[in-house]
Design a protein that fits this description.
It is a single chain. By secondary structure, the chain is an alpha/beta fold. The chain has 10 helices and 11 strands. The strands form 3 sheets. A 6-stranded parallel beta sheet has the order 1-11-8-7-5-6. A 3-stranded parallel beta sheet has the order 3-2-4, sandwiched between helices. A two-stranded antiparallel sheet has the order 9-10. A hairpin with a 5-residue loop joins strand 9 and strand 10. Helix 1 packs parallel to helix 10, helix 2 crosses helix 10 and helix 6 packs across helix 7. The chain binds NADP nicotinamide-adenine-dinucleotide phosphate. The site of NADP nicotinamide-adenine-dinucleotide phosphate (NAP) has 25 residues, from helix 10. NADP nicotinamide-adenine-dinucleotide phosphate binds next to helix 10.
Amino acid sequence: MAIIIDGKSVADKITEQLKQKLSQLQDKPHLAVIQIGNNAASTIYVNLKKKKAEEIGIKSTVINLDENIEEKELIRIIQELNKDNSIHAILVQLPLPKHINENKIIKTISAQKDVDGFTAQNTGDLLNGIKPKAYPCTPKGVLKLLKEYNIEIQGKHAVIVGRSNIVGKPLAIMLLNEHATVTICHSKTKNLQEITKQADILISAVGKKIIFKDMVKPDSVVIDVGIFKDENGKTTGDVDFENVKDIASYITPVPKGVGPMTIACLMENTIELFKNNKKRV
Ligand code: NAP
């Protein structure tokens, strides 16, 4: 029976440490969150981030923009935020409406304020083994969980299912930088089960139930990044938790696994950008 990795309590511990840190500072970091349109899931995420920021003592401003906003107007707003010295971190809530080019928008955010670590400079630094201004929050959260539970990464075979720019790809680089042997799988991967069964550390970031007991090596570490609602409206993850927990050595639940870590890391990134920003001025 696996040890259940308690992401919620690790995240609460980080929150507490950040609160302490900020209570000693006179100036407070200021996070700007841009939300376009009224996507229900985005609204939930934005509200969670705002609430967590308030709890820690980070100032946050949510900028709600119309679904039909023109791309060039959005770019202008981000450029204003880049110039605004009272803003230390900028987050554009994804996904964006179809008429807006996501890459162009991410490119507009100043690397110094890129709290998600998605800009070309920050991802390029990550790829080159240079410390970026901010690490992408979900991969950072996954690594923190592995370290918190003293799970060895070096020399282990880490298999990631999912190759998105926000989770799979940066996580692969971060694990590689920690000396894991990394395999990335995706929707065109043949014989997924053969590959997942070789994983010492199996991480799934897909968004549907895809990892079952017969795909998991006994005593491996299973990290579930996926979050979605099942047919009964219940929040669940990619992994068949009830059965996989019987053979894994460690496993994250959904909810209360990776999710709270993502938000905690976002808060940590905001504070780090704020501090770096202060050093520059
Ligand atoms: P995404 O951009 O939709 O990427 C999903 C990935 O899964 C793609 O690379 C896709 O392959 C792959 N995939 C789809 N079907 C597959 C299959 N049958 N076999 C193998 N791979 C398959 O999603 P994302 O943004 O990375 O998010 C993934 C999940 O994580 C979602 O449930 C999301 O809600 C969740 N999430 C959670 C957190 C958190 O804090 N816990 C943060 C971010 C995301 P292709 O590239 O070939 O299409």
